[in-house]
Amino acid sequence: MKKIAVLGFGTVGSGVVELFFKNQQKIEQKAGQPLDLAYILDLRDFPDSPYAGKFVKSIDNILADPEVSVVAECMGGVEPAFTYLMQCLEKGISVTTSNKELIAKKGAELLANAKAHSCNCFFEASVGGAIPIIRPLHRCLAANEITDIYGILNGTTNFILNKMLTDHMSFEDALKMAQELGYAERDPSADVDGHDACRKICILSSLAFGSHVYPESVPTTGIREISLEDAAEADKLDGAVKLIAFVKQLENEKILPAVMPMFVPHDNMLSRVDDVFNCVEVCGDAIDKAYFCGRGAGKFPTASAVMGDIIEAAKHDKTVFSQDWTDAGNQDFIAPVSELVCGMFIRFEQAGSSKTISETAAAFCAKEAINGTISASDKACVTMPLNAVQRDELLDALRGAGLKIAHWMPVLPA
Ligand code: HSE
């Protein structure tokens, strides 16, 4: 018999508790032993809850019980979550968390503490909600040199962009709907401005490349600048606008992580990931590409990942060493975003200019000796991959031909 405690009875925490009691028999069978969800930590009172007898208001009640062997943190925020989990690990209690902010900022310290006390710090629920991605990345794909990861990692923004395109819904109405459905963060600017996706790509980058990537090192742009016109014009050019969090390994061995809205061509699976779904494309030298898709937010999808970790923690008494990274002491292994080579989706203010666009682009390509094509509609175009200098030169050439640029965004690199 192993005792479990859940910290926080919000959307995710209550989902973990409900899922445990709904599927307890199956969960115990998978864990290979009886489990007792003994404590729920929350400062609020829940007198009418069927679990009313399990609530405690202090972490000390949990730390004082030597039979507790797994703690699931679902509170969000860095403190007091970090202090509580460090206290648990110091007692040899394995922890699992859905808290991406915590892992993105403090993951190296938590993992080192778990290792020092021969227990585990799991965080499958911190990236991609229900999608198994953390364990596949460090276990199933362990034989690969990972070269790139591209992800739709925020359900709220994907839901909003999808509603803007398919239902012509305003940004504000779509955000309100995402909040009502329980997808959005407590502060929705974390979703809309890309910080949530940034934290998630920090976690995947750290795991894939072994050194802690901190959120401050990742250039991040959200979706506030995306208009209904961007979505419609991208569709005409066979693509979709998606908020993409990515990390690429460059030839100089540095990595380039960033979060930004991108034009995703329809021939890439990510362009067809809609609603609150997330999808992660992992590229490795042995696998070419693998895709991991599923519900990226919501009560039970996230609870499913937390519960999976609880079962794993109950089964494994020793630290899982492959789920690990360290703090390199600096962020010099990260390349500036200006080193990104990518195409451009460019939208113009006025229609009727496809001939000018094509002629200007053809002249630019001839001058630069670039092989490639630029597809154009009346109001937008998509270019072949260019470096930062070439991108600026092409934008200047288009402006020089009298075209007014409304907005441009990168094309998802092939
Ligand atoms: N607000 C997050 C999202 C929740 O929309 O993806 C899951 O991390």
List the helices and strands and how they pair.
Layout (H helix, E strand, L loop, with lengths): L1 E6 L3 H12 L1 H8 L3 E7 L13 E2 L2 H5 L4 E6 L7 H10 L3 E4 L2 H17 L4 E2 L11 H7 L5 E7 L2 H12 L4 H10 L8 H4 L2 H15 L18 H9 L2 E11 L5 E11 L11 E8 L3 E8 L3 H17 L28 E5 L5 H15 L6 E2 L3 E3 L5 H13 L4 E6 L4
Parallel strand pairs: 1-2, 1-4, 2-3, 4-5, 5-6
Antiparallel strand pairs: 7-8, 7-10, 8-9, 10-11, 12-14, 12-15, 13-14
This protein binds L-homoserine.
User: What value does the Rg take, in angstroms?
Assistant: 23 Å
The portion of residues assigned to helices is 25-40%
The ligands bound in this entry are: L-homoserine
Structure summary, number of beta strands: 15
Strand order, biggest sheet?
A: 3-2-1-4-5-6
Major sheet summary line:
6 strands, parallel
How would you describe what is shown here?
The chain is an alpha/beta fold and 414 residues long. The protein has helices spanning 11-22, 24-31, 59-63, 81-90, 100-116, 134-140, 155-166, 171-180, 189-192, 195-209, 228-236, 299-315, 354-368, 388-400; strands at 2-7, 35-41, 55-56, 68-73, 94-97, 121-122, 146-152, 239-249, 255-265, 277-284, 288-295, 344-348, 375-376, 380-382, 405-410. The strands form three sheets. Strands 3-2-1-4-5-6 form a six-stranded parallel β-sheet, sandwiched between helices. Strands 9-8-7-10-11 form a five-stranded antiparallel β-sheet. Helix 1 packs across helix 12, helix 2 (24-31) runs parallel beside helix 12 (299-315) and helix 4 (81-90) runs parallel beside helix 5 (100-116). The radius of gyration is 23 Å and the shape is elongated. The chain starts with a strand and ends with a strand. The relative contact order is 0.14. The mean pLDDT is 95. It binds L-homoserine. L-homoserine (HSE) binds next to helix 7.
